[in-house]
């Protein structure tokens, strides 16, 4: 497991008070998906494309563009990270393939897939990142 994958796995992913961790199931995430009217979705943000640090203002603009691009999907605002590192994201409801399209568009290395009744899992977007 490389450093980037370890960072994703050490992080928490939160939206509307529901916290997901890769490899774990959380009834609060299941309940949030139900409130959004979906059975599945993904935690996705637009900060730091390909896991390269960008200025705060740039990250905020990209996050606003992501929200606009995902406007037809049910969403909850959140944030995630580990330790001192935090960044904004959304829990976008719907088919993870639609979330993957947005992840590619916003050059995200990976996102977290959640399905009701199942543990959260990491989905790589750009295979070369995983090494």
Contiguous low-pLDDT stretches (5 residues minimum) are none
In DSSP terms (H or I, runs of 4 or more residues), the helix count works out at 5
Rounded mean pLDDT score: 94
Termini gap: 9 Å
Number of domains: 1
Task: Please give the radius of gyration in angstroms.
Answer: 13 Å
Which structural class is indicated by helix and strand composition?
alpha+beta
Tell me what portion of residues adopts beta-strand conformation.
25-35%
| Morphology | globular
Strand order of the largest sheet: 2-1-4-5-3-6-7
Number of strands: 7
How much helix is in the residues?
A: 25-40%
What sequence of helices (H) and strands (E) makes up the elements?
A: HEEHEHEEHEEH
How would you characterize the largest beta sheet? 7 strands, antiparallel
Task: Supply database-style keywords.
7-stranded antiparallel sheet; 131 residues; alpha+beta; globular; 30% strand
Topology:
Layout: H1 3-10, E1 12-15, E2 18-20, H2 27-36, E3 40-44, H3 56-69, E4 75-82, E5 85-93, H4 96-105, E6 110-115, E7 121-124, H5 127-130
Structure description:
It contains five helices and seven strands. By secondary structure, the protein is α+β, with helices and mostly antiparallel strands. The protein has one domain. Strands 2-1-4-5-3-6-7 form a seven-stranded antiparallel beta sheet, sandwiched between helices. It starts with a helix and ends with a helix.
Write a brief caption for the model:
Helix content is 35%, strand content 30%.
